[in-house]
Amino acid sequence: VVDGGLERERVDDVADIMRANRHVAAGGATRILAKIARIEHRRRWEELALMGLITGTCAALLFYARRREQRVCASEQKSMQDLERINADLEAFAGRVAHDLRNPLVPILSGTQVIERSSVDAGVRRAAARIERSARRLASMIDMLLDFSRLAAERSPAVCEVRPIVEDVVEGFAEKARLYDVALVVSCENVRAACEPIVVASPLQNLIENALKYGRRAGVAPVIEVRGFWRAGMVLLEVEDRGPGLDATQAENLFRAFKRGVDGGEGVGLGLATARRLVEARGGSIGLRAGRFGGALFQVRLPTERGVTVGRRAAEEGVTSGEVPA
To answer: What is the pTM of this model?
Structure first.
């Protein structure tokens, strides 16, 4: 009996110890969990604070960027307005100067023609002919200045037949091509461009003139090809020579106002600049690339007014080709 009682007391002591340890363990676990909860709570607040700082910084940066963009836009708008005003003044000035310079040319040309028809010494006649040629070159420069000054003017929509203009321009260079011993080859489809005739003629005249001056290369027959056709909703005019070609810098300078040819050349350097402005003002473009024979190939792209009837007629008739003898 005694042994059984002692055994029960030991069991009860072990049970008490286990209950005490359980309470201690439970209290420790509770404290650890509470500590973890506080740490997690603090971490979340720190994350929220960091996110708030980042958001505030981004908002401040966006606000600063917006203000800076507004200042830049305002500055650019003012610069554009100033440039437009200066451009308008320059165009008006060019128009006045060109108009004033044209007036004295009329009596000069008339006088030289009278001298050439008179029975005077041959040397005097040759001098008069030189004066007339110089006066006509000056008249051509004045015409370019007038074109340059009129580009900003509002114009009503226009449509023109391209082929007669191309043929007329090429025919105007027939005599000069013979003097330069150059073959002019023209091919043009029946297409209509959504622009005035001058927008077709002016670039073509300048490109052919430059091809005659610079489109020659030793050992290669001098040929200038002029083409007009329709492609992908645009009228394309091409002038291709068989000269030495142009590098990128020379090509870009050709279209800048007051820049002349590769060796200086004659004129005031407004021909191609005016032609480019004319074409771009009508929604077109002028580009340059290497030709099939290593020369320069200039391409003028103009918006087209090509109906079904015109397209069908062009397809039926094909391309009209011809060569102007040199």
So the answer is: 0.52
